[in-house]
Amino acid sequence: RPRVLSGIQPTADSFHMGNYLGAIRQWVALQETHDAFYCVVDLHAITAGHDPAVLRARTRASAAQLLALGLDPERCTLFVQSQVPEHPMLAWVLSCITGFGEASRMVQFKDKSAKQGADRASVGLFTYPILQAADILLYQADAVPVGEDQRQHLELTRDLAGRFNTQFGKTFTLPAPFIVRDTAKITDLQEPTAKMSKSSSSPAGIIELLDDPAKSAKKIRSAVTDTGREVLYDPANKPGVSNLLTMYSVLAGKSIDELVMAYEGRGYGDLKKELGEVVAEFVKPIQERTRAYLDDPAQLDKLLAMGADKARTVASATLATAYERVGFFPSR
Ligand code: ATP
Ligand code: MG
After folding, report:
1. N or C: which end of the chain has fewer CB within 10 A?
2. How far is the C-alpha of 11 from the C-alpha of 44, rounded, in Å?
3. Kind of enzyme, top EC level (predicted)?
4. What angle do CA 29, 33, 39 make, to 5 degrees?
């Protein structure tokens, strides 16, 4: 079976619709066909400032949401990144074959550090993509299901894997991005050309999976759309409406064409109202299941510890090979 690995940051109390449609939905499907590793990347989540108690709660809530959305510990390996110390251990080596200029070209760092002010941005935010490369390469992943925003980081990962292999002997599989075009960039409701984001969207711009469905319906009703009236799928000229159609289409299992036909002669108001209902139907059972997992944290933690054990078996074997190739002293 081919391998996949992907991760998500516990940087908010709830995941949003972009996380689900762009990434997690694929994770659920890929468990059936791939040897799948998925992690809550708490090491990545401390790169832009955090509160310890909040981080721990969000890490659990993230795992609970992933299970509620359909990850099955019998079918995949679900774990918390910090419980597998091989990740930062490989990241150090990779950071030593990454060019400073190469890392400086990462758009996510440029965006996030610009928001924080260049002097306040941490070195961890800068080396974030190198740790991400380690996450992926430790598992010899063939494919990495992510949203469009992660494409550049995956290119860096491939470059680093290739460079390491050339310099020290074939060690790592070169991973391919697995990006589903239609849902690769779900946009902010208030800013329909920017990606919906846990940490940078305004509350009105994101549909949170754990939010009260009435609140989400209201946000959808206030979503920015153009001044036209016709419901058409045209991402270049009607990004707001097209984003609503994309979400509707996947959540309701209807094609965009079908939806455009159904809304012919009706305005944006109807589309927004009905998408609010579709979202409510989708999130209600997920919220219930998330709550159930969080009601039994001991069981949840046990499940994650088992995932970490499974992950470590694979990660430690890869790390041992990589350390040996680099020329480190044999481990004792
Ligand atoms: P943050 O703002 O803290 O970076 P985020 O919303 O970008 O949070 P991540 O945890 O960084 O979420 O990313 C988790 C996964 O969700 C990644 O695969 C990422 O590509 C995907 N993703 C995030 N936002 C979107 C989006 N708007 N559309 C599609 N995929 C997305
Ligand atoms: Mg992100």
Report:
1. C
2. 9
3. ligase
4. 60
pLDDT of residue 185: 97
Six-digit token pair at 312? 């470590």
With a 6 Å cutoff on the Cβ, whether 62 touches ligand 1 is no
Does 99 appear as a known binding residue?
no
Q: Where do runs of H (alpha helix) occur along the chain?
A: 17-19, 25-30, 52-68, 86-95, 100-104, 107-116, 123-137, 151-168, 213-221, 239-252, 256-262, 268-295, 297-326
Average pLDDT over every residue of 173-189: 97
Strand order from edge to edge, sheet including 176-178: 76-80, 35-40, 3-8, 143-145, 176-178
Q: Whose CA is nearest to atom 13 of ligand 1?
A: 8
DSSP three-state, residue 172: coil
Least confident of 145-159, 226-240, 305-319: 226-240
Confidence grade of residue 118 (pLDDT, cut at 50, 70, 90): confident
Instruction: Say what the pLDDT of residue 193 is.
Output: 94
Instruction: Check pocket membership of 205 for ligand 1, CB cut-off 6 A.
Output: no
pLDDT of residue 205: 97
Check if the beta carbon of residue 8 is closer than 8 Å to that of residue 62: yes
* Dihedral angle sign, alpha carbons of residues 276, 280, 286, 287: positive
Average pLDDT over residues 224-241: 93
Looking at the CA of 47, name the nearest ligand. 1
Query: Is residue 115 annotated as a catalytic residue, yes or no?
Result: no
Alpha-carbon distance of 259 to 248, in angstroms, equals: 8
Nearest CA to 127 among 144, 147, 104?
A: 104
Q: What angle do CA 331, 85, 95 make, to 5 degrees?
A: 85
Report the pLDDT value the prediction gives residue 88, as an integer from 0 to 100: 98
* pTM, two decimal places: 0.96
Instruction: Look up the ipTM and state it.
Output: 0.99
Measured CA to CA, the distance from residue 58 to residue 14 in angstroms comes to 8
φ, ψ at 36 (rounded to 5°)? -105, 135
